[in-house]
Amino acid sequence: MPDRMVGDVMTQEVVYLSADTTLDEAAQAMRTQDIGDVVVTEGPTLAGVVTDRDIVVRAVAEGRDPRSTRLGDIATRDLIMIQNDAPAAQAAELMRDRAVRRLLVHDEARQLVGVITLGDLAIEMDPDSALGQISGSPPNN
After folding, report:
1. Nearest-CA neighbor of 25 among 72, 57, 63?
2. SS3 for 27?
3. Which of 16, 38, 59, 63 falls between 20 and 30 A from 29, CA-CA?
4. Half-sphere exposure of 119 (CA within 13 A, CB side)
5. Which domains does the chain carry?
6. Is the dihedral of CA 128, 129, 130, 131 positive or negative?
7. pTM across the whole model
């Protein structure tokens, strides 16, 4: 799989939500779009990322009200990015080294063009593995 680039494997549809968006609104958007993350913005600036797991661990498990807690309150602010023309294997290495399940993908101009997830890589690099098969299956919601 050395020929595959991040841009070939990534998900191009990025969902952007304002830092002022409540968690329940974000969770509904994730369900509707069948995604596990949203990019958080403050005006025109990328401010962070929130995943479905972040909502559970950083908010619900802490007793925060999803109807009043804002994405900006729980967002991961350390944005880990990779260029779209990097090898997909490099994305896997970066995920392993940084212990993350997704990376933001940018182009040469450093503009966000997608998201690559561990599931995307599993489908591409090892489709017969359990993770590849699970990630490639239709949602069960």
Report:
1. 72
2. helix
3. 63
4. 12
5. 6-136 (3.10.580.10)
6. negative
7. 0.84
What would the two tokens of residue 25 be?
A: 């609104």
Rounded Cα distance between 38 and 100, Å, is 15
Say how far apart CA 27 and CA 34 lie, in whole Å: 10
Interacting residues of 63 by C-beta distance below 8 A, sequence separation 6+: none
Assess contact for 119 and 133: CB atoms under 8 A.
no
Amino acid code (one letter) for 45 = T
Neighbours of 39 (CB within 10 A): 19
- 112-132 confidence digits (pLDDT tens): 999 999 988 987 765 555 444
* Per-residue pLDDT tens over the stretch 58-77: 999 999 999 999 999 999 99
Give the 3-state secondary structure of residue 51: strand
Strand 16-18 and strand 45-51: the pairing is: unpaired
